[in-house]
Design a protein that fits this description.
Structural class: alpha/beta
Oligomer: single chain
Order of helices and strands: EHHEHEHHEHEHEHHEEHHHEEHEEEH
Shape: globular
Bound molecules: pyridoxal-5'-phosphate
Distance between the termini: 28 Å
Amino acid sequence: MIDLYSDTQTRPTPGMRAAMAGAVVGDEQADGDPTTLALCARVAGLLGKEAGLLLPSGTMCNLIGVLVHTRPGDEVVADAGSHLYCTEAAGGAAIAGVSVWPVQATHGVFGPAALLAAIRPAARTAPRTTLVSVEQTTFNGGEVWDPAALREVATLAHAQGLATHLDGARLLNAVAATEIPAHEYALGWDSAWIDLSKGLGCPMGGVLCGSQTFVEAAWRWKVRLGGAMRQSGVLAAAGLYALDHHVGQLQEDQDNAHTLWSVLSTEPGIAFDPPRPRSNILRFTAAGLDAVALTAACARRGVRLRALDARHLRATTHLDVTRDQAQQAADAILAAVAAVKRDQA
Ligand SMILES: *Cc1c(COP(=O)(O)O)cnc(C)c1O
């Protein structure tokens, strides 16, 4: 099966497993695990931040970002299609006591005017808008923000007294797509993180970065939420291994997504949204066909896609999909589209 369901489907490679097995470890929660400290310093450097901390998931990176930057009763501005708003079980509401103002953005990218319109008036009766969160690349279609656009939003947010949080689950995919370094994207964002369990191919984890003060506050929440670990070096070693060996792969994922796009574009019924994929995520509809029927037809031909709703499908390239498999998958999807069209005719 060629698994394009998500880049979370990657399996740890033999090299990564060996690095994990050989990790030097300590007690993270008591006095620091050396391999974890090395990973946090490395990612903080990559993002141009003072410090970082390892968390079990990207979801916890977002939750702790919200917890540190807000107080109960505050409001967070985020894209209506964002991971934070749609697929984190309303952690901000349930645990941080905040509401989210969902911005209707194009593929998750919005400008200063949209942010300004989302900020509540300074009235006694209104929630206090205290944080803006954006994603690079976006969950809502894999779009890539330009650094200038990110900086404009961050600058306006600060001028309005908001804190800024960058969900960089796939930030390194944006780096692969544009060759712009990660720290340029993170400039002006008070907190920023990368996921280890997506394109980097680790079994789990994310590294949340910011100022020393931010990370100290984040540490308290990590403990409170039960995210403080012991011999976390076993996980951190996977992260360090991925930064040494898997970052180059993100470029290939980018190329494979382009291959899929260019082959699938030969079928006039297939429409991409966004029209030209910028990273490793393709979202599309196929001649109005039922997405569930089409994923089943693809599965019978050895390709796993994700049905997002009744009509939209998603394909994501990653470490465990080779160049040849991307080509094979594109051909199989075209054959499946033809077959479902025949069935429904
Ligand atoms: C996957 C993802 C997350 C959450 O990361 P997990 O490690 O799966 O908890 C957050 N934001 C975005 C944009 C993501 O794609």
